[in-house]
Amino acid sequence: METVCGTVTMQSLLLAMQQRNLVYNYDFRYYSNKVIIGNDITYNSPDGWIYLDPGRNGKIGFDSVNNTCIITKSEDNSPMRFAQALHEFPRWQSVLAGRQVTAKAILNIPAGAEVTLSLTDGIDACTIARKGSGLTEMVVQLVVNPKSTAVLLTVGCATPFARIAVYSMCANVGAVALDNLPCTVQGIIGERRQYIATENPPAEELSLCNPAAELGLDFSRLNSVINSRFGTGPNKRSLLPDMRGYFSRAWDHGAGTDPDAGQRKPLGGTIKGDNVGTLEEDEFLKHDHQLSFSTDKPILTGKEGSATIINTGNTSNTKPAGGKETRPKNLAELFTIKWA
Questions:
Q1: DSSP annotation of 257
Q2: Could you tell me the sign of the dihedral formed by the alpha carbons of 15, 19, 24, 29, in that order?
Q3: Looking at domain 10-173, which of 3.30.365.10, 2.40.30.60, 2.60.120.260, 3.40.50.970 is its CATH number?
Q4: How is the chain split into domains, by residue range?
Q5: Which residues have a Cβ under 8 Å from the Cβ of 111 and sit 6 or more positions away?
Q6: 15 exposed, middle or buried (CB, 10 Å; 0-12, 13-18, 19+)?
Q7: CA-based, 20 to 30 A from 338: which of 24, 134, 162, 255?
Q8: Which of 178, 135, 156 is nearest to 5 (CA)?
Q9: Where is the composition biased (Polar residues) (predicted)?
Q10: Separation between Cα atoms, residue 335 and residue 312, nearest integer Å
Q11: DSSP 103-137
């Protein structure tokens, strides 16, 4: 294994051990957008990551045997980018501005391919390149400019057909990158939470009790999870779902407990049917109401002859009862989604 790093002192190691991993899903265990059809699994891009390859037939997936993210470069020399925004957490400037950040990638580079690893803050950058040498450790370091507006960690490749296996990527404040640090993101990006005693979401979460809003540029990790499930805005980024007034229901997933699961509608996007995130309008179960009279009793008549009291040839309605909707007893809560 090739190792690129400077001399590690005890002081720098102790400093690094007190930090947090800035890379979310550093070992690629989360694939919210994988698609399972029979025995075939299409993993798509892992949660938190941005994958761009403008060439033909480029793809990204997962090797479940070696637990690695697999990137297959497209057919031409167009640049492939596999990146994550490390600054996407509240008040990141106070943690990163003016500080040294070290990032490490462990990957397998095939013979004939060249791969770059870069750390940039939009003002300054540190980039190294490695040619095919099998299992490789690459390290980059950057002092984050106090005027920076973003910090990005990127793997790049322009070699046609290169098959790159990415084992892990980590980054933290300090002179040495450690892959066993707890992540800055505590929990799972995209998980829904709910609160009963506040109308204000925590800094790491966004409210779902507002009109559907398009995610901003600094929510790329959440965008990778939602992946346009609820539609996109003018800038082609994901919309948050508008959950105001809705109850939640567990995904039927073919059980038949929800008899109309196949007719569920999209909530802003195009995904419909028996899928997570779809909408079902309110409805009464088909039923009958018993009428409190009978037509099989004799009708007594007077001197005017027989009398018709009930016209069984026509229909009528029962007297309306109830309110504006059918609902169980409930409490209003704030629904949120985690982004950092």
A1: S
A2: positive
A3: 2.60.120.260
A4: 10-173, 187-302+320-340
A5: 132
A6: middle
A7: 255
A8: 178
A9: 308-319
A10: 52
A11: EEEEEEE-TT-EEEEEEE-SS-EEEEEEES-EEEE
Which of these, 200, 214, 244, 224, lies nearest to 85 by C-alpha position?
224
Q: Is 262 helix (H, G, I), strand (E, B) or coil?
A: helix
Cα dist from 264 to 37, 155, 243, 274, 277, whole Å: 20, 40, 16, 7, 10
DSSP state of 14: H
Please report where in the chains the tokens 């051990």 appear, as a residue: 17
* H/E run at residue 12: helix 10-17
> Distance (Å, rounded) from C-alpha 216 to C-alpha 228?
13
Tell me if residue 284 falls in helix, strand or coil.
coil
Q: Three-state DSSP class for 89? A: coil
Please name the residue that has the structure tokens 């948050």: 240
DSSP per residue over 162-229, as a string?
A: -EEEEEEEEEEESSS--TTSPBSS-S-TT-EEEESS-SS--TTEEESSSS--B--GGGHHHHHHHTTT
| Rounded Cα distance, 254 and 262, in Å | 9
* Residue 293 CA from chain centroid, whole number: 58
Give CA angle at 275 (273, 279), nearest 5°.
65
